[in-house]
Design brief:
Largest sheet: 14 strands, antiparallel, barrel
Number of strands: 18
Shape: elongated
Order of helices and strands: EEEEEEEEEEEEEEEEEE
Helix content: under 10%
Radius of gyration: 25 Å
Strand order of the largest sheet: 1-3-4-5-6-7-8-12-13-14-15-16-17-18
Structural class: mainly beta
Distance between the termini: 28 Å
């Protein structure tokens, strides 16, 4: 992460197993790795179905809501066991741990007592359990493949209500209150594959390739609709199905070893996105205009560059140290800047290998961009 995730061509240990499953090929001893992540996210997102937007001076679909997130999780745990030219690994990865909510209550019209309320909460986690096998051949080539079960758990609650405190009908309807919502509280799993190739001769240059499936996840959701008249609620809530398809990733990379203590790497990642769902076209008879902001997301490219400088300890010490810098550019789809805008993330880190037998490796990394700060700690232990 400290090198901008530009590691496809320089992956060489268990802690880079997810960047390229060929990374563990050629290890001489078993290894254990654990990574801890702490993320701080403070962001706003674009709500495409904002019922109240025309009353707040915005076009429909132009309401921005704030969400804050401060998770701390184990993000990765792996163990590898070499068998001559083969290396087998098992791992757990958690790449998403988000939990945020916002509650809005606004008096829209003091004369008629129109009141708008919105409760929005969202939490999600994405976890993977996998087995990986890597094989080294011809001294300079390595190939790796991983099979994993991935689970996406989502709890999303988005309920809107437009009501009248005085009990007078709202807008042009006969109802004193009307509301709708989209609620999803489910988990879904899929079986995914990852494939990696690594070419690492003795010279200055190396090359790598990594393909990772994103997966398709099906959920049971709820389309909430209700109307209130004379304190009687007409509930028209129905069940629905939702599908989330995560992007497939194909990365190619090159590494350049200036000398024994300095290297650079460059990755180009191609992301195959799925289309967003259609924008809501039913306004529940409230005669509100509808916006059509949803479009298919084109496939995108992400460019990553990383730099590492290594240092050794004093003459009597076998300790080794490293500083790392990275830059990642990618298309931004979250609406914080603009839809399909462009975002740049910067990262930095420090690493150390120490112990009487150099059995410990610790890496610290920080990444920032798009109102997000992510901290990562990686601990690696060489089993003897």
């Amino acid at each position: 992460m400290s090198m901008g995730n530009a590691c496809t061509a320089i992956a060489d240990d268990i802690d880079m197993l997810m960047e390229n499953p060929a990374a563990v090929a050629g290890l001489d001893k078993p290894r254990v790795n654990i990574q801890l992540r702490s993320g701080i996210l403070e962001t706003t997102y674009l709500d495409q179905e904002a019922l109240n937007s025309q009353h707040l001076g915005s076009r429909p679909g132009q309401i921005y809501k704030p969400l804050k997130d401060k998770p701390t999780d184990i993000s990765f745990f792996a163990i590898s066991k070499p068998f001559e030219t083969w290396t087998l690994s098992a791992y757990f990865q958690k790449t998403l741990g988000f939990d945020g909510d916002v509650d809005i209550e606004t008096i829209l019209d003091q004369t008629n007592d129109f009141q708008f309320t919105n409760l929005n909460s969202f939490s999600a986690s994405y976890e993977q359990l996998g087995l990986s096998a890597a094989f080294k051949f011809l001294d300079v080539w390595a190939v790796g493949i991983s099979v994993m079960t991935a689970e996406l758990d989502i709890n999303s609650w988005d309920t809107w209500e437009l009501s009248s405190i005085s009990g007078q009908p709202i807008l042009a309807s006969n109802y004193s209150a009307a509301g709708f919502g989209n609620n999803l509280m489910d988990s879904s799993s899929d079986i995914l594959l990852q494939f990696g190739l690594l070419y690492k001769p003795a010279g200055k240059f190396s090359a790598g390739l990594n393909f990772r499936q994103g997966g398709d996840f099906d959920f049971n959701s709820e389309a909430q609709q209700y109307f209130i008249q004379n304190e009687v609620t007409d509930d028209l809530t129905t069940s629905a199905n939702s599908k989330i398809a995560l992007a497939d990733s194909l990365s190619v990379g090159i590494g350049w070893q200036f000398n024994n203590s300095m290297q650079m790497s460059l990755d180009i990642e191609h992301l195959t996105h799925s289309d967003l769902p259609a924008t809501r076209i039913n306004t529940l008879g409230l005669n509100l205009p509808v916006s059509h902001l949803t479009e298919a997301i084109d496939d995108t490219f992400s460019y990553k560059i990383g730099f590492e400088k290594k240092f050794t300890g004093r003459d009597s010490s076998t300790n080794q140290y490293a500083i790392r810098l990275g830059i990642t550019t990618e298309d931004d789809h979250d609406g914080v800047r603009i839809i399909e805008g462009y975002d740049t993330q910067f990262s930095a880190g420090f690493g150390a290998i120490f112990g009487s037998r150099q059995q410990y490796k610790m890496d610290l990394g920080i990444r920032g961009g798009d109102e997000e700060i992510l901290l990562l700690v990686s601990l690696n232990y060489l089993l003897h």
